[in-house]
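Following up on my earlier thread - several people asked me to post the actual chain instead of describing it. Fair enough. Here it is, all 463 residues.
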Amino acid sequence: MSSSRPPEGQAAGASAAAAAKSAADADKAASALAPSSLNPGVARREVWAWAMYDFANSGYTTVILTTVFSAYFVGVVGQGEHWATLAWTGALSVSYLAIMLTMPTLGARADARAAKRRLLFASTVGCILATLTLTQAGRGDVWLALIGIALSNYFYCIGESVVAAFLPELARPRALGRVSGWGWSFGYCGGLLSLGLSLVVVTLAQGRGLGAEQFVPWVILVTCAVFALSALPSFLFLRERAVPLPAGNGPGARRATPDMLGQLARAWRETRTHFVQFRRLLMCVACYQAGVAVVITLAAVYAQQAMGFRTEQTMLLVFVVNIAAAAGAFLFGYMQDRIGHKRALTLTLCGWITMVLVAYFAVTVPVFWVAAFLAGLCMGTSQSAGRAMVGSLAPAGRQAEFFALWTFSVQLAAVIGPLTYGLITWLTHGNHRLAILITGLFFVGGLVLLRRVDLAQGMRERL
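Reply from S.P.:
Thanks for posting it. Predicted structure:
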């Protein structure tokens, strides 16, 4: 009955008002960017519009993947079975494998056709529509939920890769860290908006005695509304600067139907001979991002299964994590440009290792909150640092293609990390503490591989 649901008008009104206020705050923040940080012809409003996409899509990862729907799937849709965590990670892995196989070709075609904006729009619509199907997933609707999450995550990953490819077009090489960090930090603010509105929905629903099957669909609707509204500036103000290549088979021409797997193999082989440092960076990213993927997709599951958190406690926890992530990405972006990308990422990986140890030994809630705060700081800085490093090594005119390779390594990590966690919990009948400890090995491996990356040499290779 309508009387038992959260008031739709209030939720939509709050979403629009909060988005408008955030846009105004963002415009002020964008004006603080020095003109020398941007490439010639790039307006501050365009940088704000680019960052607004991070703002828009962060609600999907924060609410759907990290906080609400992941725990809802394990506890309600999967009815708390031991295989539920593995099924959740398996669905995400399928979507990441699909991205690995298709994104390099999609990126190359976007470069050749100067169609990054069109691809960004299509992926946004696809993600929102697929996410809306999750409103129909109730107790026992396992396959509906798995298909919905796999499709929505696939489209989300396309958009994440495409919007990242705009970064080298907007920021000068020496300012990639700060501009990337500003985008990431602003993105976490978008996650906070979606999570805050969702927390209001959950609180109102629980106050009326409603369960998760009644309020989770409303949380999904609010998240999709924020995504759609906040993405509009990106499509209105973000310019497509690439020039389409002529059709045909000659030099400098684009092929009409590029071979998907062949394009992937060619791009990877080219990094072996011409872009060696970029290849090493991709291997490093694939390793440490496996650990980051575990935190993003299973934080709520760990909090509820290992620490006994309730839904509203978990949402408040992730709310604080996002605040720390936004602050870390913004402040660390400036530090990154000063101390260097490699040193910045090294410090971040050391922070991740510390976080894992604190979470493993945490037996009280306050100690676990310390681990969560550390995770937030490290999450914002590591993702910002990685994107800036890729931008500094990607050759001009092929940004979308090389950022697609970055997406390939990130999605490979997203397959390995969560699946490893899910398999461990399944084989040990729910030992989440052991699973998080083993996750720390991914950060250790990333630290070792990072030592082999020579950024100075990589900058020379891209010319």
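DSSP finds 17 helices and no strands in the chain. That should answer part of your original question.
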